[in-house]
Design a protein that fits this description.
heterodimer, A: seven-stranded mixed beta sheet, four-stranded antiparallel beta sheet, 11 strands, globular, B: Immunoglobulin-like, five-stranded antiparallel beta sheet
């Protein structure tokens, strides 16, 4: 596609349910990042992949959060047993190389609300 | 560690200039600047890789002072389209990830 696509755009879930957030990066991009962004704040790093390999997951808040990118393209961020504090905008970004100092392209995000 | 941006918010009239600062308590190897309009995704503006480097994008330019561990974004003759929140991001040492500042909200009034 033309840009980074995330789905769903909005997700309302009950506390305790599992959710899966999807990210479809720009075709051919090597790196894929997941960020969480609270209202009025900068994006907060969660995890990233180069191709299918998860290189760093140090930003995942706890073991209820996991991510995968099995074929080096589409990625899924899964949150198990959701809690109200998980409510936030989850953004995905991709960049064409595995280098740090290249432009990252952000998706429109998934707004998650846990009720 | 999160870079610190100042000011937190700026209100300008169209045509006025603004400076947004980004500073870090640790060594900076590069600085990335993004702009995010309300309800939209952050959009890349520029990366500064070397101390003393300056870059421009439209009438927006930036400088990077490695020794002072800071970068500044300059918006000249601001246009309504410049409104949004500006974020600087710095690489976490030795890691391929950005740590973003808390943002500077820029409002341009006609």
């Amino acid at each position: 596609g033309a840009g980074v696509s995330q789905s769903p755009r909005y997700k309302v879930t009950k506390r305790g349910q599992d959710v899966a957030l999807r990210c479809d990066p720009i075709s051919g991009h090597v790196s894929l990042y997941w960020y969480r962004q609270a209202l009025g704040q900068g994006p907060e790093f969660l995890t990233y992949f180069n191709y299918e390999a998860q290189q760093d997951k140090s930003g995942l808040p706890n073991d209820r959060f996991s991510a995968e990118r099995p074929e080096g393209s589409i990625s899924t961020l899964t949150i198990q047993r959701t809690e109200q504090r998980d409510s936030a905008m989850y953004r995905c970004a991709s960049s064409p190389t595995g280098q740090m100092n290249t432009e990252a392209f952000f998706g429109q995000g998934t707004r998650l609300t846990v009720v | 560690q999160q870079p610190v941006q100042s000011p937190q918010a700026v209100i300008l009239r169209e045509g006025e200039d603004a400076v947004i600062n980004c500073s870090s308590s640790k060594a900076l190897y590069s600085v990335h600047w993004y702009r995010q309009k309300h309800g939209e995704a952050p959009v890349f503006l520029m990366i500064l890789l070397k101390g003393g480097e300056q870059k421009g994008h439209e009438k927006i330019s930036a400088s990077f002072n490695e020794k002072k561990q800071q970068s500044s974004l300059y918006l000249t003759a601001s246009q309504l389209s410049y409104s949004g929140t500006y974020f600087c991001g710095t690489p976490d040492q030795g890691a391929q990830k950005l740590v973003f500042g808390q943002g500077t909200r820029l409002t341009i009034n006609p």
